[in-house]
Amino acid sequence: MADLARLAGRNFLVIGRAGMDLYADPPGTRIEEATRFTTALGGSSANIAAALVRQGCKAALLTRVSDDAVGRFCLAQLYAYGIDRAHVRAVAGEPRNSLAVVETRIEDCQSVIYRNNAADFAMTIEDVERVDYSAYSALITTGTVLAAEPSRSAAFRAFELARAAGLPLIFDVDYRPYSWPSAAVAAEVYSRAGEMGDVIVGNDVEFGFMAGHPDLGLDKARALIADGAQIVVYKRGEKGAVTLSPWGEFATGIYRTQALKPTGAGDSFLGAFIAGLASGLPLREAVLRGSAAAAMVVARVGCAPAMPTVPELDTFLASHPGPSE
Asked: Peptide bond before 27: cis, by omega within 30 degrees of 0?
């Protein structure tokens, strides 16, 4: 079990994809009716890294991008957000960067994601063994990095190296069925990753999937704590979240905002939540900061561009009543 006090170093290594997001413009436009799009940095891991940097932390991304114009767009965006690119390598040939075509709509929001032969899945054990894990405060990853080889084996090797260096492992379940060869493979791999995590965050559907039944998600979250996880956040959408630790569990609600879209909430939650823990906040306050950040992002266009800064988040919390529990 890693010491979560290490989070205070506020320097995080994030494994996983960076991609390009194309948003139908203006907001509210359906993709099939769009004649123009705006671009933004995308990919769950890159979004989390952006959220951490906006919250005053340092973040480095460990991944691969395609050796083409879209890959160079991602590299330029990582630089613009202040995300360390030292562990991002370009892969030549057929692999292509993840691409998402998205709507800024709250009802019937369409998000079309292209992940065939994705460049980030080309990350290798050699890539992760080049990293000095002792330089970081924690290793953060999402479940998407585990969906294909060689990325899956590389990620588990990174987990081993991070644990040897004493880093906490922070795992955002982030189950995307379209990335996996089968649900059975995903369930086995997620179970293995969950057993290694110190902090695990997911929603009720994802925990239900890990449990093998949609009604057993909360039981799965409790089992992870019993098996050694230090914090598990079980998100329930509009019902808020249940946060579990070896010292008990508590429920929190959500902050109400005028949402423009449903995307980006999970990435913003994780970034602000981990930044709160790194600042030494009590667990409940860190969860509430994550919830507030999620509420802010769904009320803004884009994902990475929508991540709040510390002053913006502080202002939001000061001007919005706490959520009901």
From this structure: no
The values of phi and psi at residue 255, to 5°, are -90, 135
What are the pLDDT digits (tens) for 42-99?
A: 999 999 999 999 999 999 999 999 999 999 999 999 999 999 999 999 999 999 999 9
What are the E-state strand segments in 43-166?
A: 58-66, 84-91, 99-102, 111-114, 138-142
pTM listed for this prediction: 0.97
Say how many C-beta atoms besides its own lie within 10 A of residue 229's C-beta: 24
Domain ranges of the chain: 4-319
pLDDT band at residue 325 under the 50/70/90 scheme: low
Q: Are 148 and 121 within 8 A, CB to CB?
A: yes
Closest CA to 60 of 159, 146, 133, 118: 133
Averaged pLDDT of the chain: 96
Residue 324 reports pLDDT greater than 70: no
Evaluate whether 198 touches 140 at the Cβ level (below 8 Å). Answer: no
Residue 23 three-state SS: strand
Cβ contact 308:284 at 8 Å: no
Per CATH, the number for 4-319 is: 3.40.1190.20
In total, the chain counts a number of residues equal to 325
Indicate the DSSP class of residue 118: B
Q: 183-196 and 151-164 are packed helices; what angle lies between their axes, rounded to 10 degrees? A: 10
| pLDDT exceeds cutoff 70 at 194 | yes
- The number of angstroms, rounded, from the C-alpha of 230 to the middle of its chain's C-alpha atoms is 18
- AA letter at 179: S
Cα(243)–Cα(138) distance, integer angstroms: 20
